[in-house]
Write a structure and sequence with these properties.
Blueprint: E1 7-12, H1 16-26, E2 31-36, H2 39-47, E3 54-57, H3 66-74, E4 84-88, H4 93-102, E5 106-109, H5 114-125
Parallel strand pairs: 1-2, 1-3, 3-4, 4-5
Helix pairs in contact: 1-5
C-alpha cells in the first residue's frame, strides 16, 4: 500500500484554542497544519513559499482581517486558485456574501462541526473521500 503524501494547510485564527482544535482534527487525516494567529502572520507564512493545499481563515483578526488576506490571495497569481475556507463567528449575511464574492471556496460559521470542516477541507484540497471521515470531538 502506498504512503499518501500529507497535504499542508494554513490555519489563521486569532483564538489559539480554535486553531488547536482545527489542527488536531485535520491532522487526524492527511494534513499537516501550520497555525498563524493573525492575518499578517498568515501572509508572512505564505510568502515563505510553503506549498499549501488549503487555507482556513477567520475573518475577525488583528493586523489584517480574513477579508484582507483573501483579497491579497485572489489578486496574486501564486495563490489565486488556493482553496480557502472562511471559518468565522461573523455569520452575518453581508460577511458571507463578501467573502464568497472575493473568492472564498466555503463559508462556515462558529460554532462549527469539526466533521463538516474536515470533509470540506479534504474535498477542497483533493485528499479523496477515503480520508474524509473523522470522529466528532
Amino acid at each position: 500500500m502506498a504512503v499518501r503524501e500529507r497535504l499542508r494547510v494554513l490555519v489563521a485564527d486569532d483564538e489559539p484554542h480554535i486553531g488547536k482544535i482545527i489542527k488536531m482534527k485535520l491532522e487526524q487525516g492527511p494534513f499537516d497544519v501550520t497555525l498563524a494567529y493573525d492575518g499578517q502572520e498568515a501572509m508572512d507564512v505564505l510568502e515563505q513559499g510553503n506549498d499549501f493545499a488549503l487555507i482556513v481563515l477567520d475573518l475577525m483578526m488583528p493586523r489584517l482581517s480574513g477579508l484582507d488576506v483573501l483579497l491579497r490571495l485572489r489578486s496574486d497569481d501564486r495563490w489565486k486558485s488556493l482553496p480557502c475556507i472562511v471559518l468565522t463567528a461573523a455569520g452575518e449575511q453581508q460577511y458571507q456574501r463578501r467573502a464568497l464574492e472575493i473568492g472564498a471556496s466555503e463559508f462556515l460559521t462558529k460554532p462549527f462541526s469539526p466533521r463538516k470542516l474536515y470533509a470540506r477541507a479534504a474535498e477542497l484540497a483533493g485528499a479523496g473521500s477515503e480520508n474524509a471521515e473523522v470522529r466528532e470531538a
